[in-house]
């Protein structure tokens, strides 16, 4: 056990889509020097995380091993890869490495926490490399749905790892570098120990499509639109934003970017030189003076987010602009599972305004940023790794990815969050299980997913909440009647009198029946009152609410 | 205005998918005799209706006009058409007409409310008709994803209406009657005033596919499966259930039906004679003694419902059966928008058990029960109506359906819930707007969607709940400190001391500052305490919770 070893430990993103965080280490067991690849967020929903603002990986293990961490390396600037950098910097405080565009975004995230920009070091792409502890790390350009996405070439004394990051095999991505199989083959020819690989689209059986196919369809649509055109897409898909803007400009329309994220991304892309020929943009204040048929808005909110520009426009006037009969609204995007209802709601609100909605249901106006099944096999064929380690996927994706690798006679290992894999020998093996989980950013504080706080909120949402207040006098006898407040419960039930009255009567009866043993014991008293409330509510309205009992003793 | 008129009034299902309820009337304005077509439910979700059990149409208008209602006519036995029959019978109490299979299901729903079965009258299909008030109603067989779905031929002195119900143009539906264009043309040849038509799939540009195509693909899959096979589909899709069972039987497997709805539907279909040749079924208790490779389960829960058989099997042992490595789980279904996360969760749990999951992503194992765009146009061509009235769709579906009708040089009218349409003249016109909405079945009581009860539950889920208790003595001075209870909120915030302590201190300070004017006025006092709680929480944890203040006065 004292031999040096090469380890891989996913802390987020393996067994889920979102909040990516992967750790590599080299050294003696327990003393490995570490690099962290990506530190992203996931997004909350009403089902499981009501009221939560963001979901972050649980970095308890990283904090405990902080002195062993050499650096945080970011592959690209999507929120699920860079989103937690600001929220965790105070706890980790390690140097951050990224390419220029990603570094620009990361610096803005740190600035929100008052951290200086020099914490982020800008790296040039391969063949340049950076020595980080026992590793040498190079950024290998690859196409994705955001500029400057990079695979990582991670060299250790135990061999070379190729970490793909998120990718697709696009030879014409329009913005950012194209997929260059020769470059990747060249990097791999000396032998690759492990290919740690994106699994998102493993179930899509056809080869991926290039970003270049979207342009002509969008151009035709925009050219034929008689009135105002609004298009939404992922703000970070700078190539798509440019495609949309170009279609507008060619149709003689002035372009307005609406939504903070949309402007921020274009700005970062221009600042870092990845975007050079974006059509001229007019400020939203000028939109009112431009005839509708000469105007095109490119807006945030393709996932139906309630506060983004798309939702605002669907509800009414936004930034002085109001959509009308005959306007066109294009969703140049796909709907991420879970967001369907929000997106459909917007479409129906637009329909009520007489706006014509076009989406990607026929596949003309969007392409995915991830490699499909045949592309994943192509990647394996190019890199020829000894082991395939699927990442960036739910359990079913990782499992399928292992399966297709084995069908190709390659070793594959299914490693989910918390499984530390020893990659040193010829066959990968599980070295250890680390406790992992999720941390919620809730308002301005971080809480644990298992703290019970969000569970209580879900219970109140499902069951309602009853508050019982009781004052006990100096003789440990009830002073007056117990008092009941309802929140989120029907006011009247089976008895056809106010539920509050029925509850107060039943609680009064319970107190009348109770002896000193109960009345002097807070726990017993609360438990008894709680039981009465739940029974009575169940009889009256068929629900068992959450109950808070407050007993005040004057003694 | 004293002329007799023919009206159409959707109360549910027009402007949404779910809880269908359409009213037809004939007579002098305000005195029309009415028939209600379908009375269905919609299903709640955590986003908008947490804790709610079912969503029903608001029948306030029907209750107010109860003495004018001649009958309730049910087109088919899907929950969104028949589901509210039991919950509303006490309020409406009108006779119910349906064909045998639908009547069987409706009687079971009424039985749950202690209503005798004779409330439901079984009708034979066209050419038989029933005189109901000023109307003559005939049930016109058509194919759908449930047996005995029927269009309605509704004759009134002002002309004939064809109400399609839910339908597809399937000439080989396997169970139930096939689409018979000659029959529909024959019914229509004397002239149809209005075609009131299903709009669900108006955005699907290709012609619908027949139920018959599913069989061979399923058969191949099941025959090749090495171990246990589990298949889930909509229980009411009796044809599909039979297809699945036949595939199992042909592969030499014993068939087990799992889930109450699955057994109930097959039972109803057998009882009413629509299903004659279902393979033999073994009780679940016998499953343990059958080798896995000779067993097939057909189970409920294709939409990821937490308590249905699919979810139970994905979690662990259910009815003595446990899924294992190498088993096959088939989703012979589509995922209804909003249910994606639940379904995906099950798939991942199955993946963790090593079960191979197959779904319909490639289109081999499911076909829709609704007419696609070309089918809707075919229906118009067969019926040749004077007016097309789209129903059964969200606003965007209805609008598109009107559009394609107009493109075909037909009159179309977009009528959403609450719009009473006068169909008497040559052109349809809006006669009146009726207030409509939704009623929630919440536990055992019905509450209004706008009562604020569910809104309070959502607010507690998003913001948490703080309870402040304060006792005021006989001199209207606080007796001791205010007491704070938190539910669903972080215990510690910015100050790094318990939030409860910070709140109690701030509330104490507020009380110390407050004069008699505040202390003697319950409203002022509560408002002041509430404001302090929200401000302090916002400073400490960045959230503004819901607050309940209980002030007890000893005076």
From TrEMBL, chains A, B:
Q: Which InterPro entries match?
A: Metallo-B-lactamas (IPR001279), RibonucZ/Hydroxyglut_hydro (IPR036866), RMMBL (IPR011108), RNase_J_2 (IPR042173), RNase_J_b_CASP (IPR055132), RNase_J_C (IPR041636), RNase_J_CS (IPR001587)
Q: Which GO terms describe its molecular function?
A: exonuclease activity; metal ion binding; RNA binding
Q: Which domain of life is it from?
A: Bacteria
Q: Is the keyword RNA-binding in the record?
A: yes
PROSITE patterns given for it?
A: UPF0036
Q: A Pfam family this protein belongs to? A: RMMBL
Q: Which SMART domains match?
A: Lactamase_B
Which key words tag this protein in UniProt? Exonuclease, Hydrolase, Metal-binding, Nuclease, RNA-binding, Zinc
The answer to keyword Cytoplasm applying to this record is no
- Record-linked SUPFAM superfamilies: Metallo-hydrolase/oxidoreductase
What's this protein's name? Ribonuclease J
Source species taxonomy = Bacteria, Pseudomonadati, Pseudomonadota, Alphaproteobacteria, Rhodobacterales
């Amino acid at each position: 056990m004292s031999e040096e070893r090469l380890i891989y430990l996913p802390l987020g993103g393996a067994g889920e889509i979102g909040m990516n965080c992967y750790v590599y280490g080299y050294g003696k067991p327990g003393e490995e020097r570490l690099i962290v690849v990506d530190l992203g967020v996931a997004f909350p929903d009403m089902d499981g995380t009501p009221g939560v603002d963001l979901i972050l990986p649980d970095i308890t293990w990283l904090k405990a091993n902080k002195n062993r961490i050499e650096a945080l390396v970011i592959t690209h600037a999507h929120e699920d890869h860079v989103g937690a950098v600001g929220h965790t910097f105070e706890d980790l405080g390690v140097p951050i490495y990224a390419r220029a565009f990603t570094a620009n975004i990361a610096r803005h995230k740190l600035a929100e926490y008052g951290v200086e920009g020099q914490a982020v070091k800008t790296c040039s792409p391969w063949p340049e490399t950076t020595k980080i502890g026992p590793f040498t790390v190079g950024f290998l350009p690859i196409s994705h749905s955001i500029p400057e996405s990079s695979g990582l070439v991670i060299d250790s004394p135990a061999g070379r790892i190729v970490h793909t990051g998120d990718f697709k095999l696009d030879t014409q991505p329009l913005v950012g570098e194209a997929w260059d199989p020769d470059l990747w083959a060249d990097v791999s020819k000396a032998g690759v120990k492990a290919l740690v690989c994106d699994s998102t689209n493993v179930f899509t059986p056809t080869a991926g499509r290039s970003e270049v196919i979207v342009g002509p369809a969008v151009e035709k649509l925009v050219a034929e639109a008689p009135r105002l055109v609004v298009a939404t897409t992922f703000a970070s898909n700078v190539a798509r934003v440019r495609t949309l803007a170009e279609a507008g400009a060619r149709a003689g329309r002035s372009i307005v970017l609406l939504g903070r994220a949309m402007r921020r991304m274009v700005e970062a892309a221009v600042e870092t030189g990845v975007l050079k020929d974006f059509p001229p943009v007019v400020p939203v204040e000028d939109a009112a003076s431009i005839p509708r048929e000469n105007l095109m808005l490119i807006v945030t909110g393709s996932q139906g987010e309630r506060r983004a520009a798309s939702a605002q426009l669907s509800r009414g006037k936004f930034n002085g602009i109001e959509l009308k009969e005959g306007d066109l609204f294009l969703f140049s995007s796909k709907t991420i599972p879970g967001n369907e209802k929000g997106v459909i709601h917007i479409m129906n609100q637009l329909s009520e305004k007489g706006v014509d909605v076009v989406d990607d249901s026929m596949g003309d106006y969007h392409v995915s940023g991830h490699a499909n099944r045949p592309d994943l096999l192509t990647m394996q064929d190019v890199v020829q790794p000894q082991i395939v380690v699927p990442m960036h996927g739910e359990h079913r994706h990782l499992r399928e990815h292992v399966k297709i690798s084995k069908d190709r006679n390659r070793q594959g290992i299914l490693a989910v969050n918390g499984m530390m894999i020893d990659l040193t020998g010829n066959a990968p093996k599980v070295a250890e299980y680390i406790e992992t989980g999720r941390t919620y950013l809730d308002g301005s504080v971080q809480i644990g997913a298992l703290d019970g706080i969000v569970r209580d909120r879900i219970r109140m949402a499902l069951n309602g909440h009853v508050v019982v207040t009781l004052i006990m006098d100096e003789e440990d006898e009830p002073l007056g009647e117990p008092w009941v407040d309802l929140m989120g419960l029907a006011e009247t039930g089976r008895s056809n009198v106010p539920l509050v009255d029925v509850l107060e009567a039943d609680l009064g009866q319970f107190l009348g029946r109770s002896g000193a043993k109960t009345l002097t014991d807070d726990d017993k008293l609360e438990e008894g009152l709680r039981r009465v409330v739940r029974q009575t509510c169940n009889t009256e309205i068929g629900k068992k609410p959450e109950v808070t009992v407050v007993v005040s003793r004057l003694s």
